[in-house]
Automatic annotation (TrEMBL), chain A:
The keyword Iron-sulfur applies. One of its GO terms (molecular function) is metal ion binding. InterPro entries: 2Fe-2S-bd, 2Fe-2S-bd_dom_sf, 2Fe-2S_ferredoxin-like_sf, 2Fe-2S_ferredoxin-type, Beta-grasp_dom_sf, Diverse_Oxidoreductases. The keyword Iron-sulfur applies. Residues 3-79 form the 2Fe-2S ferredoxin-type domain. This is (2Fe-2S)-binding protein. Pfam families: Fer2 (PF00111), Fer2_2 (PF01799). Gene3D superfamilies: 3.10.20.30, [2Fe-2S]-binding domain. PROSITE patterns: 2FE2S_FER_2 (PS51085). Keywords: 2Fe-2S, Iron, Iron-sulfur, Metal-binding.
UniProtKB/TrEMBL annotation, chain B:
InterPro entries: AldOxase/xan_DH_MoCoBD1, AldOxase/xan_DH_MoCoBD2, AldOxase/xan_DH_Mopterin-bd_sf, N-heterocyclic_Hydroxylase, OxRdtase_Mopterin-bd_su_IorB. Residues 291-419 form the Aldehyde oxidase/xanthine dehydrogenase first molybdopterin binding domain. This is Xanthine dehydrogenase family protein molybdopterin-binding subunit. It comes from Oryzicola mucosus. It comes from the Bacteria.
Length: 159, 703
């Protein structure tokens, strides 16, 4: 039942020969070695697995990879690397936004989707954009500050 | 060896703590582990401070049974007091040994030498010698004497500064967790959980399970422990889901919804003990009493438990994110019948850990499979349903506080009466053991009725003694042993409800006297640090402008010293109540003594506050005949971004006092402040957590 197909992740094409029903999250973590997207519930309830699909923040834990031929997937690794951090990652570091950090990949991705469509978000906009992401450590206040800070930085970079 | 902490007494050799590495760093060992609380950064600061090194010249080795010190569990906010104290003494001693050695080599007097970034200076001028040049001549296998005086706190340059977390960069860029570890030829594994001690697997349709897996898997069965193992994680997970659906068990545990209530728990037979002042209530004393409850709670880490293990030539190696690698090694060795020296446990960071969750149990699961499949690295992960369904819960509790008053309306005699299952049942403590041991033919003996004694911080009775000036204070603790679920430690343990109850009664007593809650408390509080903390929080919140309340908006306060021996925290909460409670602002003042990393403390306190809001307003575990019924984030909701108030935390300067554990200090005061704010807003008191919409409506109807 498997048929080779191509998946674009972080701008690179990958040719995959696996069942089309495999969850995208498993493909990213186990087949492509991109460990940044995280398994939290597998139920589309926590947001730890969020990735960008054509720019929208979406759950990857139950998304069948076969539905994604020709679509562009971006993971947290596609935002930036330790050597070249994305302004969001830099702002999270500056605000020390995160305790255990397990939620952060999904939250960074949701925040990226927000800032791409709304460069000038209010606090309420950020809250709305992150409400599908759970953080059990209570890093929320810092995360909100960090996203607003990154938005300001990005606006300056554009200006 | 007077003055040596237990950490150092148990691990006296210097080289368990410090090692000079070839790459010109110093490796600092600790038995305490990173749980997201920033402890490794704080400990690195302490070591770098004493050794006169930069922070990036330190590497931390944490939770390593082969080479590092054993310090029990990372729990109850002891890390900075215990491990930090040991590291400080060892580092001071090693610095002194190295300095003496350098003096010898330089033919100088030790007084002429100082250290900057690991290099010896003679009368301020750099020499050719540094730590690493003399390291070979130091006998670090020697035992610590504890006789070298550490630096005095007024000379600190690193301790007391907000060094950024060492582990955060990796976690922001897609790595850093045990879940990401890959070993060569590793196989994935998931388990089928035994539904309670004594349950026996009567039938499992293996053909169905394999069909659902869709790829090659092995089904491993060790007595009543069953697992699915294979190279394809997707298939292994699908097998576990299918198996949970089709397995037939005999003698599975059956739970009833009412068993999930504090009321049911309090009605069970109990082991009773009285702690503190003897009971002698003079006749005619006028007094007050109130009863409070809270339900069972889940830890609910976002990350399911995970462990890796491999068994080669009779030696077992385990990687785990549990809170103590030395106890884990001993518990695994015991269950597997291996000599402890054949088991090595390494800590690797996992998701947020707020107490005794499933991490240790997952490590045993992985170890069982590794031994069944020698030479084959195993990566085992729990499913979300497994995490919610089988991790130890925080017990439902009932607390009644009684106060007898003096002529001035101040409490003169106080009893905190508690009904609860145990809060301290970590493996190896009080006969507790790892989960899968129940599934072995040779079951461990039933655990004994036990909770952490008050001298060690207490379990359900933690913070049961108010810090106010009261002639006679006591705790009457009814430990309920026979509850149908495992219970153990969740951040704060019994303190959350005890502080909630004590502070509620203090508010009620103030109201009887027609006094302001803050001035009433101050009138019976002589501990100067507690007073200062309370006054600070009140000032931050603009307490003096507080109105009469009752119009759907309220301001409430809560105060406690965690474990009656750790950090002080006072919290003011502002709430709006219509049908539901909405916390709009939290102001929190903390006295943690000497502060190692201010921003780290603020971050911990913020997290504790957010979690406590969630416990107070939302969280509640439910049971049904199949077991725990709150198995996902829909049935066990927790606080979200939209519910987060503005949170203001300030630290009180108290550097002259020793460093106090801080990670759990704000939970009880936050719950209490919300409870008191809701009472202020509504004019009626809600005594049961969580304060849900239904409870608010019911209270309003009955008022
Ligand atoms: S893992 Fe996908 S939403 Fe939780
Ligand atoms: S930082 Fe731990 S879950 Fe968000």
């Amino acid at each position: 039942m498997s048929q080779p197909f191509t998946l674009t992740v972080n701008g690179r094409d990958h040719s995959l020969d696996i069942p089309a029903t495999t969850p995208l999250l498993d493909v990213l973590r186990n087949h492509l070695g991109l460990k940044g997207s995280r398994y939290g519930c597998g139920l589309e309830q926590c947001g730890a697995c969020m990735v960008l699909i054509d720019g929208n923040a979406e759950y990857s834990c139950s998304r069948e990879v076969g539905t994604l031929a020709g679509r562009c997937v971006t993971t947290v690794e596609g935002l930036g690397s330790p050597e070249a951090l994305h302004p969001l990652q830099r702002a999270f570091l500056e605000e020390q936004a995160g305790q255990c950090g397990y939620c952060l990949s999904g939250i960074l991705v949701s925040a990226k989707a927000l800032l791409d469509r709304n460069p000038n978000p209010t606090r309420a906009d950020v809250i709305a954009a992150l409400d599908a992401n759970l953080c059990r450590c209570g890093s929320h206040p810092r995360i909100l500050r960090a996203v607003l800070k990154a938005a300001a930085t990005l606006r300056q970079e554009v200006a | 060896m007077a003055g040596l902490s237990n950490s150092l007494k148990d691990n006296p050799r210097l080289d368990r703590w410090l090692k000079f590495c070839d790459d010109r760093t110093v490796r600092v060992g600790t038995g305490k582990v990173e749980l997201g609380q920033g402890v490794l950064t704080a400990l690195a600061q302490i070591a770098a401070e004493e050794l006169d090194l930069r922070i990036d010249q330190i590497s931390m080795m944490s939770g390593n049974t082969a080479e590092g010190p054993g310090e029990g569990y990372t729990a109850s906010s002891w890390s900075i007091e215990h491990s930090g104290g040991a590291i400080r003494l060892v580092a001071a001693e090693v610095r002194e040994l190295a300095l003496k050695q350098a003096a010898l080599r330089l033919n100088a007097s030790p007084d002429e030498l100082s250290v900057v970034e690991g290099v010896f200076l003679r009368n301020g001028t750099p020499t050719d010698f540094d730590y690493w040049a003399v390291a070979g001549d130091l006998d670090l296998a020697a035992e610590a004497t504890g006789t070298v005086l550490p630096k005095s706190s007024n000379t600190y340059r690193l301790v007391g500064t907000s060094v950024p977390r060492l582990d955060l960069p990796a976690k922001l860029t897609g790595s850093g967790f045990i879940h990401d570890m890959v070993l060569p030829d590793m196989l994935h594994a998931r388990t089928l959980r035994q539904p309670g001690r004594g349950a026996t697997l009567a039938a499992l349709d293996e053909a169905f399970v394999r069909r659902k897996a869709g790829a090659d898997i092995s089904i491993i069965r060790i007595d009543n422990f069953v697992a699915f193992v294979g190279a394809d994680e997707t298939a292994v997970r699908a097998a576990a889901v299918a198996a949970a659906d089709c397995a037939v068990w005999s003698d599975a545990r059956i739970l009833h919804p009412e068993q999930a209530t504090a009321k049911w728990v309090a009605a069970q037979p109990s082991h009773d003990r009285l702690i503190g002042a003897p009971v002698e209530e003079p006749a005619g004393a006028h007094g007050a009493s109130l009863t409070f409850t809270r339900p069972f709670l889940s830890h609910g880490s976002i990350a399911p438990s995970c462990a890796l293990a491999v068994y080669r030539d009779g030696a077992l190696t385990v990687w785990s994110h549990a809170q103590g690698m030395h106890p884990l090694r001993d518990n695994i060795a015991k269950t597997l019948g291996l000599p402890p020296e054949n088991v090595t446990c390494h800590h690797v960071q996992g998701g947020g850990c707020y107490g005794h969750n499933g991490a240790d149990d997952a490590a045993l699961d992985a170890a069982l499979l590794a031994r069944a499949l020698p030479n084959q690295p195993i990566r085992l992960m729990w499913r979300r349903e497994e995490e919610f369904g089988y991790e130890p819960l925080s017990s439902a509790m009932t607390v009644t506080v009684h106060a007898a008053l003096d002529a001035g309306g101040r409490p003169r005699d106080w009893t905190t009466e508690i009904w609860s299952a145990a809060h301290g049942q970590r493996p190896g403590v009080g006969g507790a053991y790892l989960l899968a041991a129940d599934a072995m033919k040779e079951q461990p003996p039933e655990r004994k009725p036990f909770d952490i004694p008050l001298e060690r911080g207490g379990g359900a009775d933690r913070n049961g003694i108010p810090l106010y000036d009261i002639d006679a204070k006591r705790i009457s603790y009814h430990l309920i042993h026979d509850v149908p679920v495992r219970t153990s430690s969740l951040r704060g343990l019994g303190a959350t409800l005890n502080v909630f109850a004590i502070e509620a009664l203090m508010d009620e007593l103030a109201a009887r006297e027609g006094e302001d809650p803050v001035s009433y408390r101050l009138s019976t509080l002589s501990d100067p640090r507690a007073r200062r903390t309370l006054e600070k929080a009140a000032a931050m919140a603009g307490w003096s402008l507080r109105d009469a309340g009752g119009a759907g908006r309220g301001l409430g306060i809560g105060l406690a010293r965690y474990k009656n021996s750790s950090a002080y925290a006072a919290v003011v909460a502002a709430v709006e109540v219509d049908e539901a409670v909405r916390v709009t602002d939290i102001w929190c003042a903390v006295d943690a003594g000497l502060v190692i990393n201010p921003d780290g403390i603020v971050s911990q306190v913020e997290g504790n506050i957010v979690q406590a809001i969630s416990w107070t307003l939302i969280e509640e575990v439910g049971f049904d005949p199949q077991g725990i019924s709150t198995l996902d984030w829909q049935s066990y909701p927790v606080i979200r971004f939209s519910d987060i108030p503005e949170i203001h935390v300030e630290l009180i300067e108290a550097d002259q006092h020793e460093a106090l554990g801080v990670g759990e200090c704000a939970g009880g005061p936050t719950a209490a402040a919300i409870g008191n704010a809701v009472a202020h807003a509504l004019g009626i008191r809600i005594c049961d957590m969580p304060m849900t919409r239904e409870r608010i409506m019911a209270a309003a109807l009955n008022a």
